[in-house]
Amino acid sequence: MRRRILPAAVMAATLVTGAVPVGQNAQPLQLPYAAVHDPQFIGAAAATFMSDDDRVIGVMSGKTAKAYPAGILSQHGLVEDRSVKGPIAITW
């Protein structure tokens, strides 16, 4: 499993599952991208690859802030992470 390092925020979004339509013999949904699971984060000062104009999806959960760069999300489509209140999925 590959992990991406993302700069520090927490965002709730819709979780994508491999659901199969009821009553059909369809195969589980195959995503057209490689989702990121349990990403590792770095501090904002260490995110030298980011510029002031880069977009991020960010959320504050309790005292924890995380940022998910749109450039990384556009390549992976889905990040499955955890917040103080439980699992979350971030999509772009």
What can you see in these coordinates?
This protein has 92 residues and is mostly beta strands. It has one domain (5-15, 33-91). It has one helix and seven strands. The chain has one helix at 70-76; strands at 5-7, 36-37, 40-42, 56-61, 64-69, 78-83, 86-91. The strands form three sheets. A three-stranded mixed beta sheet has the order 2-6-7, with no helix packed on it. Strands 1-3 form a two-stranded parallel sheet. Strand 6 (78-83) and strand 7 form a beta hairpin. The radius of gyration is 15 Å and the shape is globular.
Descriptive labels:
8% helix; 92 residues; 35% strand
Topology, please?
Elements (H helix, E strand, L loop, with lengths): L4 E3 L28 E2 L2 E3 L13 E6 L2 E6 H7 L1 E6 L2 E6 L1
Parallel strand pairs: 1-3, 2-6
Antiparallel strand pairs: 4-5, 6-7
